[in-house]
Amino acid sequence: MVIVMNRHASEDEIMNVIEFVEALGARTHLSRGQEKIVIGVIGDKRNIQKEQIKVLPGVEDVVSILKPYKLVSREFKEQDTIVRLNGVEIGGEQPVVIAGPCSVESEKQIIETARLVKAHGAQLLRGGAFKPRTSPYSFQGLGEDGLKLLKKAKEETGLYIVTEVLDAMDVPMVAEYADILQIGARNMQNYKLLKAVGKIDKPVLLKRGLSATLTEFLLSAEYILSEGNPNVILCERGIRTFVEYSRNTLDLNIVPMIKRVSHLPILVDPSHGTGRRELVIPLSLAAIVSGADGLLIEVHPQPERSWSDADQTLSPDQFALLMRKLDSLVKWLRNEESVIYTN
Ligand code: PEP
Ligand code: MN
Q1: Ligand 1 site-directed mutation target among 207, 268, 298, most atoms within 8 Å of CB
Q2: Which one of the ligands is nearest to 134 CA?
Q3: How far is the CA of 304 from the centre of ligand 1 (A)?
């Protein structure tokens, strides 16, 4: 349920509505948009009747949201969410590029990668310190030492850090080093972890689960928002299908679909989405055309030597080529946008 406040509603009237609803046992979420002030009502709504609320001072309308996800829906918030770090906007006009190795391996490797991705125009650095590996015998990441190396790379280059957190217990530690905390595909439905990152004041990059539907994906984001963290960035990273020529099937359908039903930004990860470096450039471009707000790309100074995901990791030259192509595409799209994106 969403309570739309009158444009001229006073602060007292807004507070009065919130107190009224909470006294009846539900929780509220206030959202001050450019055009509207809305109060989302979530949780136990058994005692709440629309008619009672409609007559409260300052209330313009009370609307039921029929979808299972509420706070992430366009019905709750019409304008796009833009996640802002100082100087970088995710979900704004320009697509962002988050690039770096699959795993942090050494100081030399992460700093060299940070420098090269920055030189080619990436705004954020990725790199896993805690790695969710399919096999327990594979490299599991450097842990906190890896986070310290990411911090060094940030000091050297000024790039913001995106890194994965695997466990709810590690959230405070990872949040000390990361600018954006990543929840990996395998953890998309780890509700304890989602609740834990919902309580922090740093943005969260939520990757789609290997077989998650759009509704499940958005409900996972809803967990984070409902705990109070509005800065969620979705990321399509490919799903499991019957195809055998690629690691996953990158589901670009979901990008414009998410844009219709949700206000959250969505990135695309063609590295994990394809698992093959020769497919990464074409799928990156396709992702941007589909309306994605940016890309997550694996890059390594010597991809064949990567400790993880070598097959899908771009070389410095390939990354440079991708960034050049992206630049031309973005310029072209700016002129063509009205032709491509119709409702
Ligand atoms: C990653 O981005 O490092 C990663 C492990 O991806 P995913 O969770 O999408 O498999
Ligand atoms: Mn990887």
Answers
A1: 207
A2: 1
A3: 19
Q: Residue 120 is encoded by which pair of tokens?
A: 């080619």
Q: Does pTM surpass 0.85?
A: yes
208 pocket-lining for ligand 1 (C-beta < 6 Å):
no
Give me the domains of the chain, ranges plus CATH numbers: 2-63 (3.30.70.1140), 83-342 (3.20.20.70)
How many angstroms separate the alpha carbon of residue 296 from the centre of ligand 1? 10
Kindly give the confidence (pLDDT) of every residue in the chain, 343 residues in length, as a single tens digit, with 9 standing for 90 and above: 999 999 899 999 999 999 999 999 999 999 888 778 999 998 888 889 999 999 999 999 999 888 999 999 999 999 999 999 999 999 999 999 999 999 999 999 999 999 999 999 999 999 999 999 999 999 999 999 999 999 999 999 999 999 999 999 999 999 999 999 999 999 999 999 999 999 999 999 999 999 999 999 999 999 999 999 999 999 999 999 999 999 999 999 999 999 999 999 999 999 999 999 999 999 999 999 999 999 999 999 999 999 999 999 999 999 999 999 999 999 999 988 777 776 6
Query: Strand 83-85 vs strand 59-63: parallel, antiparallel, or unpaired?
Result: unpaired
Identify which ligand lies nearest to the alpha carbon of 165. Answer: 1
